[in-house]
Amino acid sequence: MPVNYQQFQQQLREKGKQAKAQEKDRRERLERAQALLDQRAGDLDSLRELVAEAARRDRGLRCASPLREPLTYRAGANPPAQNPVLFAADGSQVNPSRHDAVEFGLINIGLIRMTPGQPQAPRESVFSTLLLFDDLRSPQGALTEDLVALRRDLYERTRLAEAARSEPQPVVALTDGPLELFGEPKDDARYQETFNQYLDALEQTASMNVVTAGYVDKPRADLLVRLLELSLLSAENLAQAGRERPLFGVTDNQLFEERLQPGERSAVFAIQSSSAEKFSQRSGGLALHFFYLNVGRAERPWLARVEVPAWVSRQPEMIDLLQHTLLGQCAQLGGRPYPYALHRAHEVALVTFQEKEQLLTLIEAELRRQGVVIGQKSYKQAAKDLEGRGRL
Amino acid sequence: MSELEIGRLLRAGTTGCVVGCRVQQLGAPAFGGMVRIPLEDGVQVYGLIHDIHIDDDGLVRQLVTAPEVSQDIILDNRQNRNVPLEISVLFIGYEAGGLVSHLLPPRPPLSLDAIYICDETEIARFSAAGRFGYFRHVLRDPELPVGELLAAHLQQAARAHAQAGRQDWLRAATQELIVLLRDDYPTLMTVLSTVSEIYPE
Given A124, A328, A332, which is nearest B63 (Cβ)? Predict the structure, then answer.
């Protein structure tokens, strides 16, 4: 059956009526947030104390915390003294499915090495890890999609650390998405082990002084907005942070969209959150910081959120190098700016549905050669695979 | 015999084939160039390149919108990425048991068969055999840029024959074209006007 367009249209019309009022409300909140941002731009010490106090009262507090630069700070990109070697890693995975004839998983990491400013073809590598038999389950339970994703993040990080080892400084290492990890379940021993290995890999990168960053395209974070909300709370209400949301709906992106000129970055902020705390507890300056960067054009601003570890943000020349490199990379993709190297790493890593089917055939053939009886795909999956009427 | 491989076969039919090649291999083949495809049974299929097609993809379409594309990214797209590059070949004859025939080959080549550029000796040998029978393969296809294709081929073949001391080959080939196209005046005029451009002053 197709979509019930009659019902859909009716619901759309009703929702549409709300849009104007919602937009007006959001505009008013944004104006309030903008005014608050200007007003508190220089109160760095008191805002830091406020965050510390609120975090003491609420362990789950999530917001930005100012570092050295005023909240409204903006900086253009200074050309670096030396062009870096640039690495970008991205991962793709096949999640194990009990509906397949043989349950298996795969983690594929694409790695791109570029030397911006030099007429050299980039180097691409791909690293594949098969997950089969014991890799898929342990006494703690089956391998979940979150655990596969966490391992993918770990492999991206370790590949970058290995690749950077043999390169002369400066080296920039990029991944897509935040450095902070949000996988669940956090109380699972396997999660803890892999997460610690992830932090180990970051520490290794720190020991090599590699400019490490996570690039978040089209961010919807409201970390700075939450900081501003904190400043609206009275001392006795501080425990209500994150629950009382007078600026709800406003994003950091909206705050900076009209403030940052093309090529400019915002101030660097620290992330206050329970998961970010695990990074700060490690040695080597792993605490998570971030800034916003306008990679767009004058007529069409486009903001990215760039997460960096503290060892990077403490060295202004590294932030300059990162900003300059990201702008150069984004400029290569013209009207839809995004780091070229990250796109290529994704392209290299991507495992298509057809490839997954080929891998499954290879696994089945090998198991048959070994005399193992192969199961069948689930009847549910078999029914779904029947040639249908061409609908999505 | 030339061993300059330009690519491998993607797909083929009775009258022609499409060859895929890497961008680095693109220096050698040219429009109108003659190619040879050795088959497993010793048969050599001959053809003319009538189209070189460079496809785009989403990333390339986006890269062209950038004000400036840096050299490393150009190299990346030419050397690392799977830029689809296809060469279309029109079959014009074959060789079996040392004899050149201007008929269509008995069977088309198979996927991934290697394609080689013909050297001047091969071009002269193939085009000297028979009485220009292979021209009909070019003239038959209304989709082809007939005049341009013949002009490119005649120029190449005339040079090969001149090397071998046969200066009159181009004149004889043109005469044959006039005979073949005597009932198709518009095409004849197009072909002659194009071919006239390759005649030595």
Answer: A332
What CA–CA distance (Å, rounded) separates B193 from A338?
A: 51
Based on C-alpha coordinates, what's the Rg of chain A? 24
Rounded CA separation B137/B149 (Å): 12
**Residue A119 touches chain B, beta carbons under 8 Å:** yes
Helix (H) or strand (E) holding B123: helix B120-128
A-to-B residue pairs, Cβ atoms closer than 8 angstroms:
54
- Residues of chain B in contact with residue A331, where contact means CB-CB under 8 angstroms, are 66-68
Rounded to an integer, what is the distance from CA B81 to the centroid of its chain? Answer: 26
Residue type, B66: A
Coil vs helix vs strand at A60 = coil
- Interfacial A residues in 89-118 facing B (CB < 8 Å): 114-118
Those of residues 297-356 in A touching chain B at CB distance below 8 A are 328, 331-336, 340, 343-344, 347
- Walking along chain A (392 residues) 10 residues at a time, the average pLDDT comes out as 90 93 94 97 96 91 96 95 96 94 96 94 96 87 90 97 95 97 77 93 95 97 96 85 88 96 98 92 91 95 97 96 97 94 97 94 94 88 75 51
A71-82 confidence digits (pLDDT tens) = 999 999 999 989
Q: How many CB atoms lie within 10 A of CB A295?
A: 27
In chain B, the residue whose alpha carbon lies closest to the alpha carbon of A328 is: B70
Contacts of A339 in chain B (CB under 8 A): none
Tokens of B135: 């021209």
CA dihedral A320, A324, A327, A328 (to 10 degrees): -170
Taking the CB of residue A97, how many other CB atoms lie within 10 A of it?
14
Q: Helix, strand or coil for residue B18? A: strand
- The whole-angstrom separation of Cα A167 and Cα A35 is 46
When scoring A87, A123, A340 by the number of chain B Cβ atoms within 10 A, the one with the most, hence best to mutate, is: A340
**Alpha carbon distance A351, A106 (integer Å):** 9
Q: Which residue of B has its CA nearest to A347?
A: B81
Alpha-carbon torsion angle A277, A281, A283, A284, nearest 10: 10
**Is B67 in Cβ contact with A334 (below 8 Å)?**
yes
- Cβ distance B7 to B52 under 8 Å? no
Q: Which residues of A touch B65 (CB under 8 A)?
A: 333-336
ipTM: 0.75
Beta bridge partners of A19: none
Non-local (6+) Cβ contacts of A369 within 8 A are none
CA A226 to CA A61: how far, in whole Å? 9
CA dist B134 and B156 (Å) reads: 15
**Residues in chain B whose Cβ is within 8 Å of chain A:** 59, 62-73, 75-76, 78-81
Cα separation values, A244 from A48, A57, A279, A294, B68, Å: 19, 15, 27, 30, 48
A390 interfaces chain B, CB cutoff of 8 Å: no
Amino acid identity of A202?
L
CB contact under 8 A, B65 and A335: yes
